[in-house]
Amino acid sequence: xxxxxxxxxxxxxTYQS
Length: 17
Hints:
The chain contains 1 helix and no strands. The chain is mainly α. The chain is rod-shaped.
C-alpha cells in the first residue's frame, strides 16, 4: 500500500505547482 502514498504525493505535488 505504499504505491498509494506515492501516488497521492505526486498528485499533491502536481496540484501545488
